[in-house]
């Protein structure tokens, strides 16, 4: 019984990383849009970095979900 409670607590803590994904993506796209509006000629050069940052941020969210599921079901 204590093990089940510990698994649930650990999974909840692991899922906190998914909350940061939404905040991080909002800041990332907002800052890109702000920079692109200030200097439109440089926006094309930074778009690849934006997509890479998006992919890494999403991967961290998916990884935290995977850790939570592993904690619950193993």
TrEMBL record:
InterPro entries with a match to the protein in the record: ATP_synth_F0_csu (IPR000454), ATP_synth_F0_csu_sf (IPR038662), ATPase_proteolipid_c-like_dom (IPR002379), F/V-ATP_Csub_sf (IPR035921)
Protein function: Key component of the F(0) channel; it plays a direct role in translocation across the membrane. A homomeric c-ring of between 10-14 subunits forms the central stalk rotor element with the F(1) delta and epsilon subunits.
Chief location: membrane
Presence of the UniProt keyword Transport in the record: yes
The keyword Cell membrane is annotated on this UniProt entry: yes
Keywords: ATP synthesis, Cell membrane, CF(0), Hydrogen ion transport, Ion transport, Lipid-binding, Membrane, Transmembrane, Transmembrane helix, Transport
PANTHER family linked to this entry: ATP SYNTHASE LIPID-BINDING PROTEIN, MITOCHONDRIAL, ATPASE PROTEIN 9
Domain named V-ATPase proteolipid subunit C-like: residues: 9-71
Topological relation to the membrane, as annotated: Multi-pass membrane protein
Residue spans crossing the bilayer: 9-30, 50-73
Family to which this protein belongs: Belongs to the ATPase C chain family.
HAMAP family assigned to the protein according to its UniProt record, in alphabetical order: ATP_synth_c_bact
Site residues (Reversibly protonated during proton transport), renumbered to this chain: 58
Subcellular location(s) of the protein: Cell membrane; Membrane
GO MF terms held by the record: lipid binding; proton-transporting ATP synthase activity, rotational mechanism
Cellular component aspect of the GO annotation: plasma membrane; proton-transporting ATP synthase complex; proton-transporting two-sector ATPase complex, proton-transporting domain
Name recorded for this polypeptide: ATP synthase subunit c
Originating organism: Nitratireductor arenosus
